[in-house]
Amino acid sequence: QVQVVESGGGLVQAGGSLRLSCAASGRTASSYTMGWFRQAPGKEREFVAAITRSGGVINYARSVKGRFTISRDTAKNTVYLQMNSLKPEDTAVYYCTVANNDYASARAGSYDYWGQGTQVTVSS
What we know:
Radius of gyration: 13 Å
Oligomer: single chain
Strand content: over 45%
Largest sheet: 7 strands, mixed
Shape: globular
Number of helices: 0
Mean pLDDT: 94
Distance between the termini: 40 Å
């Protein structure tokens, strides 16, 4: 059983930066892939980034690669998303997620535990 809590969302101007944090609580949380998805109004949930427990494999959505960086502190069961060069189309609720596998999957169905989300709004 794992609980997931995101923080760090907010309102920023286009071109700005924001850093999201996510803490997972659970006895085996450090063994899981952790990742980020986002969902904008009227849109389907979409993959952003994921990282394996050791950090050895990292996957990014093409839309954010080169602008966003995912990292983790496995000992602290914490994952981060550094978002730079933000665009209005990045506006969404960002969800942190934890999987009972270690595939760094881009598919939402691969993940088992979800946070409640944190709002990121990028103004033009």
